[in-house]
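Submission checklist for the structure archive. All mandatory fields must be present; incomplete records are returned to the submitter.

[x] Identifier: ABC-2 type transport system ATP-binding protein
[x] Organism: Kribbella jejuensis
[x] Residue count: 333
[x] Sequence attached
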Amino acid sequence: MTSVHALPPVIAAHDLTKTYTFHQQRAGLGGALKSLVRRTYETRLAVDRVTFDIGRGEVVGLLGPNGAGKTTTLKMLSGLLYTTSGDLQVLGHTPSARKHEYLRRIALVMGQKTMLWWDVPAMESLLLHKDMYGLSTTEFDRNVSELADLLEVGHLLNVQVRKTSLGERMKLELMAALVHGPEILFLDEPTIGLDVVAKARVRSFLADVNRLRGTTILITSHDMDDIEALCSRVMIIDHGRLQYDGGLDELVRTARPRKLVRATYAAPVDVGQLDGVTDVEVSGTTVELEADRDRAGAVMEQLTRLGPLVDLDVADADIEDIMRDLFQRRSSL
């Protein structure tokens, strides 16, 4: 099987930069009048010389705190924003040219925006997409049937969108985005506001779309469960700059090189003789501690000698805790 990295990237960004220039205006009528004569302009750097490649079929998470430049990057990739400088090619096209043959091959879903008409059934919006993308009736019917089965929304296609729940509406939004069979799917906070069950169904669907169709997915999310469930690779952007690009597992090992260990005993035990551990906490018959990865085996052996074990759990640090620590650390610099 050919590796995605052996093929030309479907997304290639080099020194991608975006700045915004805007004028400042004081409040009140006087401030408004003064701004007509003399304006003070400010230029803000939203994305700063970001470089990356994404191969066909990859699922990549784009992470960062609010205002880091994630959504701006997605908008440049989808062609909604012009780049200020740098080179950007997606599927061999310059996104900002907004050519039909390019738009036919991508889709953008924003969790807080809607593509569906509010007062008509979702099928009406899907039929509009059929004409907009030039789908044949056979192709359209096949895609609608496949997506409706995967998303379990066949019974909702002829219901007014405004009468559906938030979770149902997001599934219909994904259906509208994918009905023309795009090769790349850009997702901006696709599970925002959804309950636990709806989030799980959306994640399962996206994994199926990637597996069955080979769709390349770039997703931004503040829900780390989305990232853990879908992405093997993550890119962290902060203050407009790319701070990390690599595997999620490697990020965990680098940011938190220790294992979290939780041992429960049949009776209280003495942990005073434990060696090579830190942050030891004892609560009744439960012991929680951290151990270096290369010392984890030796620590397990020590724990088994303390007394009769009821349960033993070893895990990496929670990815959400890791990301919070990273962002807080950078914001304090």
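[x] Structure attached
Curator remark: The CA atoms of residues 46 and 121 lie 38 Å apart. The mean pLDDT is 86.
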